[in-house]
UniProtKB/TrEMBL annotation:
<keyword id="KW-0547">Nucleotide-binding</keyword>
<comment type="similarity">
    <text>Belongs to the class-I aminoacyl-tRNA synthetase family.</text>
</comment>
<dbReference type="GO" id="GO:0006436">
    <property type="term" value="P:tryptophanyl-tRNA aminoacylation"/>
</dbReference>
<dbReference type="InterPro" id="IPR014729">
    <property type="entry name" value="Rossmann-like_a/b/a_fold"/>
</dbReference>
<dbReference type="GO" id="GO:0005524">
    <property type="term" value="F:ATP binding"/>
</dbReference>
<dbReference type="InterPro" id="IPR050203">
    <property type="entry name" value="Trp-tRNA_synthetase"/>
</dbReference>
<dbReference type="InterPro" id="IPR002305">
    <property type="entry name" value="aa-tRNA-synth_Ic"/>
</dbReference>
<dbReference type="InterPro" id="IPR001412">
    <property type="entry name" value="aa-tRNA-synth_I_CS"/>
</dbReference>
<dbReference type="GO" id="GO:0005737">
    <property type="term" value="C:cytoplasm"/>
</dbReference>
<keyword id="KW-0436">Ligase</keyword>
<protein>
    <recommendedName>
        <fullName>Tryptophan--tRNA ligase</fullName>
        <ecNumber>6.1.1.2</ecNumber>
    </recommendedName>
</protein>
<keyword id="KW-0648">Protein biosynthesis</keyword>
<keyword id="KW-0067">ATP-binding</keyword>
<keyword id="KW-0030">Aminoacyl-tRNA synthetase</keyword>
<dbReference type="InterPro" id="IPR002306">
    <property type="entry name" value="Trp-tRNA-ligase"/>
</dbReference>
<dbReference type="Pfam" id="PF00579">
    <property type="entry name" value="tRNA-synt_1b"/>
</dbReference>
<dbReference type="GO" id="GO:0004830">
    <property type="term" value="F:tryptophan-tRNA ligase activity"/>
</dbReference>
Amino acid sequence: METEFHDPDRTLARSEERSREIEAQIAADPSRFRLLTGDRPTGRLHIGHYFGSLMNRVRLQDRGIETYLIVADYQVIYDRDGVGELKDNVFNMVADYLAAGIDPERTVIFTHSAITALNQLMLPFLALVTDAELRRNPTVKDELATSNRPMSGLMLTFPVHQAADILFCKANLVPVGKDQLPHIEQARVIARRFDERYGRVDPSRPVFPAADALLSRSGTVLGLDGQKMSKSRGNTIELGMTAEQTAKLIKRAVTDSDRHITFDPANRPEVSNLVNIAAMCLDREPVDVAEEIGDGGGGGLKKLVTAAVNDHFAPHRARRSELLANPDHLWAVLRQGNERANAVAEATLAEVRQAMSMDY
Ligand code: TRP
């Protein structure tokens, strides 16, 4: 059966329901799970990443779940010509992971490009998918539309590569945003087809498990103009920014002319987004924060948001600077993660070769 990407609203509702079930299972027994997730190092991480994914990863790691974090460097090149600031972005990403509380003793942090056996899974996996289902993948379609260039072979097949990211370590839990749901579905289909076509080494379980998406519980943080956060729009508060840079950015943020501040995302998206950012930093309810500002207007709101963001991220920023001051340590963390990921990938590839009768 071809991978179907059903009605997105229904898929989302089902994934949200499933995420709630999984949260209950995690609370009961975290040892059943192995988690993999990661980021494309196309730029610096910002507070949207922090509240949307980093915090959640740290929480799950601290619950005792075996965690793999991929810095998806090969995903940087599917829609652009050069590698740009790749190395610097990777370096800063590792720093932000550690500063946020990812513990490299417990969590394996690694880069795509360093894991030979992971990449080799791509070939057998490519045999399990059709051109038509790859072209139907709604996230690939969106990426193609925003990239403004012809589809590269890598862009068309990156969900297959991403399946290799998930399956090389036999992860069964993938915390992601909803745009990634089609890729998790593709990974499940690949795991199932591999089982059907090549069978098992251990008769009691398939070579690859079916991974579940875990949708983050916190709401989305928008950019300072109320649009989607993106580097190119200059509307993001990067984790590495100084307090002064943050203040300057928030000063330029879009608000409206009503001096009475309310939390009303449908009608006042920009104002409500600022209220929401402050609320997340203060760990309070947005309506309470809005009420406190009252008739303080855009100025009062911005003052409060700036203080909240700068206070909340001061420890992160301090740890980040310390880490950046010792590059040898950061690169060593990544090298060790790569070594561990390589060992896991080699073991999985050996099992794949055996299942495929290619273990000569
Ligand atoms: N595509 C993901 C993103 O853009 C990053 C990523 C790469 C990923 N490999 C992954 C996420 C595997 C989850 C699992 O955010």
